[in-house]
User: Fold this.
Amino acid sequence: MKIIVTGGAGFIGSAVIREIIANSQDEVLNIDALTYAGNLENLETISSSERYQFEQIDICNLELIKASIDRFQPDIIMHLAAESHVDRSIENPGAFIQTNVIGTYNLLAAALDYYTQLPEQKKSAFIFHHISTDEVYGSLGSEGLFTEDTPYDPNSPYSASKASSDHLVRAWHTTFGLPTIVTNCSNNYGPHHFPEKLVPLMILNALEGKPLPIYGDGLQIRDWLYVEDHARALLVAAKNGVPGQTYNIGGHNEIANIDVVKQICTILDTKIQNKPDGINRFEELITFVQDRPGHDVRYAIDATKIHKELNWQPVETFESGIQKTVSWYLDNQQWCQNVQSGNYQRERLGVIK
Assistant:
């Protein structure tokens, strides 16, 4: 098959492309604007493959997107390109509306134009797969799980922009007949994660003896999903999902943020003999800071549907996945330095001034 992946130089997108090249005979076109979180180093292991192509295009440029789709003639479009960090959405919501809403509209418009001109045999195989987040559902109470039927209740500019894009995708299916699926995932972690996110931020700060900032009381609960498990799920959904359906993807790992950080500290304690000056245990660096505005208390995914209907389930437990993740960051310090060579230096973002 021929697959377009938007945002393929990012954290999840690059994992999807590595999975495609390593474990199929499919061809892939990576479309990425290479914003701060897009990094072609994430694809070094597969970049020489004859089945891989890259085009630097902003999805907000409709004409370039149309031309790229028409040239490549995809069977599947997997749309992962997005602004994705909640704290950044508090500081600059306009960028999230532009990329996540307008950009998704452009892709839908271009995909529909392409789809309507396909012969019937290719039409029956085509799918537009929109990758979204569990944050569109808002905040759970102490019990229960998000299902595919949970009403939307986004609380941040980021989650509101993703909810908007989800609704657009469904509208293009219902109104125009574009074959679409939507997947909503829980918190991803793993190799190649940009260090503004919790797990890599904690690892890199700890290695330098810097504070490990925990928002509020740290009791916010997330369902943690190893990125390579997610990549496998996305390809299963893209190839076997039913048009018009939504599939929730979760890791079955509900853990409070403070416990995630403590586990990272424990692993680092065993791996790092020469700790930063004045530190006996990395947990000593934990520092509680002012909470994020509108911080959702708990997310948790019910992934029964994708397991029963598409036969997917995660391979990694959080314990095995976080061990692999910490080891990867320790072994790839040059990558960490390279991705922080721009403006972002692990400072606090998303504070309302």
Residues 34 and 56 are 7 Å apart (CA to CA). Confidence is low (pLDDT under 50) at residues 343-348. The radius of gyration is 20 Å.
